[in-house]
Automatic annotation (TrEMBL):
<feature type="transmembrane region" description="Helical">
    <location>
        <begin position="365"/>
        <end position="387"/>
    </location>
</feature>
<keyword id="KW-0812">Transmembrane</keyword>
<feature type="transmembrane region" description="Helical">
    <location>
        <begin position="164"/>
        <end position="184"/>
    </location>
</feature>
<feature type="transmembrane region" description="Helical">
    <location>
        <begin position="204"/>
        <end position="221"/>
    </location>
</feature>
<feature type="transmembrane region" description="Helical">
    <location>
        <begin position="394"/>
        <end position="414"/>
    </location>
</feature>
<dbReference type="InterPro" id="IPR036259">
    <property type="entry name" value="MFS_trans_sf"/>
</dbReference>
<feature type="transmembrane region" description="Helical">
    <location>
        <begin position="108"/>
        <end position="128"/>
    </location>
</feature>
<feature type="transmembrane region" description="Helical">
    <location>
        <begin position="272"/>
        <end position="295"/>
    </location>
</feature>
<keyword id="KW-1133">Transmembrane helix</keyword>
<keyword id="KW-0472">Membrane</keyword>
<comment type="similarity">
    <text>Belongs to the unc-93 family.</text>
</comment>
<protein>
    <submittedName>
        <fullName>Unc-93-like protein a</fullName>
    </submittedName>
</protein>
<feature type="transmembrane region" description="Helical">
    <location>
        <begin position="483"/>
        <end position="504"/>
    </location>
</feature>
<dbReference type="InterPro" id="IPR051951">
    <property type="entry name" value="UNC-93_regulatory"/>
</dbReference>
């Protein structure tokens, strides 16, 4: 066998190993030979080998999401490691986020630190593609989880410097989260593509495979609400501390930021807080180890950038890519749905727990309501995304959007009081959890389907940045306005969200028709 040096065309062939001009029969023979020995990825192919039994036509045609051979990853090992890392890390992060308004209520320091976190994500999203070119996606994920550990420990800082330390670490965390969302999306897309390659699945199956893996991932990520909140409740309730709570009979959407002035919380004892945040720090360490030893490096970042390109050139290119993504019609069509869903999710995490649960039945029920959210979203994420191949994504998007709007309307119209039964306060988070379990993974999967491989880092970074900007806007409004202002803003965004999603599906349908007619 005579081997030649790899050419540019050979790298374009990448994983699939055949030229565009080859016939389907030749393609089938080559793929069949490679399946027998998956380690063969030579730069040239011998086309005169004895023919193998032909594969089905749909298993060789139209495999657009080709990766270079080093980008093949073990799908199940990688997704399990990624899910475990997020489960442990976000068990701590979500629990801390739910407790911030209670353990750091002075001058809204807890809520403001969260606002700084999500505001800084914009900067992290802009720098994410550049950092991926410089250090790689695995190092971005690993660094972000290390900063999560530092953020957890910053909550134990002395009271004299806690506001400055907490807000500083929250800002650094936000910058890292911007890159984390991008790298997470690239990893799950790579896992899905590798699974399709190893199983010899056609490109038409890629969406359902991505939806399946996103369902597994979001089940673990949303399920982190369960152990984190149970852990915080168990540890904090073991201590005795005074808490005076004034229950207003007028609870609900018209409870405003001034409501905080009617609550007087005593910060839990230091030893209890050290135990709590020590447990959270242990969760962070497990997440770091899962990433360090569980997921492989990705060689593919952006092969359009030359190896001799300077750092300044990389910065300019990626800033241009992010700016181009923000004005990309495909991104603009999806953005309102991302924003409206994010506003309602944050309104539930901060506004609902304060204006409904704490106001009417007491802060001790906040953890249970978040557990209901975690159970519903994690179970729905698995079931809905496993069944997307049968139901189709349009049906699931319609169900998810309808439930999300219903959640906002219930919070707008319901005014509970001290006579309300506690079980009623579990219904709204449970309903919202079903909507989140459908919409969040499906939206990420839609992005992976709509944008080309070269656009994915910028697309995931931009979507994550816009989503966190919506989080920050909700948190700022929570410190200055009433809950119903936030809910009305979410419903206003849902009108262009529905229209934008309909446009996206119509454009994808027309592209599929055009592609079928051209074959």
């Amino acid at each position: 066998m005579i081997k030649t040096a790899p050419t540019k065309e050979d790298s374009v062939k990448g994983l699939i190993g055949f030229d565009v001009g080859q016939t389907n029969g030749e393609k089938a023979r080559l793929i069949s030979n490679e399946v027998k020995n998956p380690l063969i990825h030579s730069a040239t192919k011998i086309r005169n080998e004895s023919p193998e039994p032909p594969m089905e036509k749909d298993k060789v045609d139209n495999f657009e999401h080709d990766l270079s051979p080093p980008d093949l990853v073990p799908p199940w090992k990688s997704i399990i490691a990624l899910c475990l890392a997020y489960l442990f890390t976000y068990s701590a992060f979500e629990a801390i986020q739910n407790l911030q308004s209670s353990i750091n209520p002075e001058n809204h320091v807890g809520v403001l630190s969260m606002a700084f976190t999500y505001s800084a994500v914009i900067l992290g999203s802009a720098l994410g593609p550049m950092c991926a070119n410089l250090v790689g996606h695995k190092n971005i994920v690993l660094s972000c989880f290390v900063v999560h550990l530092c953020y957890t420990l910053s909550n134990c800082a002395p009271s004299s410097v806690r506001p400055a330390v907490l807000i500083t670490m929250a800002t650094f965390l936000g910058v890292c989260i911007g890159g984390l969302g991008m790298s997470r999306g690239v990893y799950i897309t790579t896992i899905s593509t590798s699974y399709c390659y190893y199983r010899k699945l056609p490109d038409s199956r890629l969406y359902s495979v991505m939806s399946f893996f996103y369902g597994i991932f979001y089940a673990c990520m949303k399920g982190s609400q369960i152990p984190g909140n149970l852990m915080s409740s168990g540890i904090l309730l073991s201590a005795k501390y005074n808490q005076s709570l004034v229950r207003d009979t007028k609870c609900g959407p018209r409870v405003c930021a001034e409501f905080d002035n009617t609550l007087s919380f005593e910060r839990p004892p230091k030893d209890v807080l050290y135990l709590l945040f020590g447990a959270f720090a242990l969760c962070n360490i497990v997440g770091i180890l899962s990433i360090a030893f569980g997921i492989p490096n990705l060689s593919y970042v952006d092969k359009t950038s030359g190896q001799d390109e300077t750092t300044v050139g990389i910065v300019k290119k990626n800033v241009y890519d992010c700016r181009s993504m923000l004005i990309n019609p495909k991104f603009i069509a999806i953005m309102p749905l991302n924003v409206s869903q994010a506003i309602i999710a944050m309104a539930l995490d901060t506004g609902y727990t304060k204006a409904f649960v704490t106001c009417a039945i007491g802060v001790q029920w906040v953890g249970y309501s978040m557990v209901a959210l975690g159970v519903a979203s994690s179970v729905t994420s698995i079931l809905a995304n496993f069944s997307v191949r049968c139901t189709g994504r349009i049906f699931q998007f319609c169900i998810g959007i309808g439930l999300d709007i219903a959640t906002a309307l219930i919070m707008l119209l319901w005014e509970p009081d001290v006579t309300s039964r506690p079980v009623m306060f579990l219904a709204v988070p449970f309903l919202a959890g079903i909507a989140q379990g459908i919409l969040q993974p499906q939206l990420q999967t839609l992005i992976g389907s709509v944008f080309h491989k070269e656009e994915l880092p910028s697309a995931y970074a931009a979507v994550n940045g816009v989503r966190c900007l919506a989080f920050a806007l909700s948190l700022i409004l929570a410190c200055t306005a009433c809950l119903y202002h936030i809910l009305m803003l979410a419903l206003v965004f849902y009108l262009p969200a529905v229209l934008g999603y309909a446009y996206t599906e119509l454009r994808e349908w027309r592209a599929a028709i055009k592609e079928d007619s051209g074959q």
